[in-house]
Design goal:
By secondary structure, the chain is mainly alpha-helical. The protein is built from five helices and three strands; from the N terminus they run βββααααα. The structure holds FE2/S2 (inorganic) cluster.
Length: 126
């Protein structure tokens, strides 16, 4: 029997807020659950802080990996708003970037944590 394994992480989506590899999830396994794709994270007029950070840090070369990297980052920051570089590297270790923009991606995740904290602080001001 052939077994399908996720390989690169580029298809990562959020299922009820948890990062999951879309390529190995049967549609019947997510019926009735909330699915968020990159397109659902933010919009052109209101980018999600993670999307904004990846642009600011120029963390893309070809862009193949970015959807998965951004979705993994969004899930990470929802669980841990202030991750260390080691935690970021560990979290993204299953997401492949063939272009080698890992340094920029880690910087983007750190920047996304800052932007998320700023946005949260702004929202909590009276
Ligand atoms: S930017 Fe090309 S694979 Fe990551």
């Amino acid at each position: 029997m052939a077994v399908a394994w996720a390989e690169c992480g580029a298809c990562t989506v959020l299922v009820d807020g948890v990062a999951a590899r879309a390529c190995v999830i049967p549609a019947c396994g997510v019926a009735g659950r909330e699915i968020t794709t990159l397109e659902g994270l933010g919009s052109l007029s209101a980018l999600h802080p993670v999307q904004q950070a990846f642009i600011e840090e120029q963390a893309a070369q070809c862009g193949y990996c970015l959807s998965g990297m951004i979705m993994m980052t969004a899930a990470l920051l929802a669980r841990n708003p202030d991750p260390s570089e080691d935690e970021i590297r560990r979290e993204l270790s299953g997401n492949l970037c063939r272009c080698g923009t890992h340094l920029e991606i880690v910087r983007a995740v750190l920047r996304a944590a800052q932007l998320t904290a700023q946005e949260s602080s702004r929202r909590n001001k009276p």
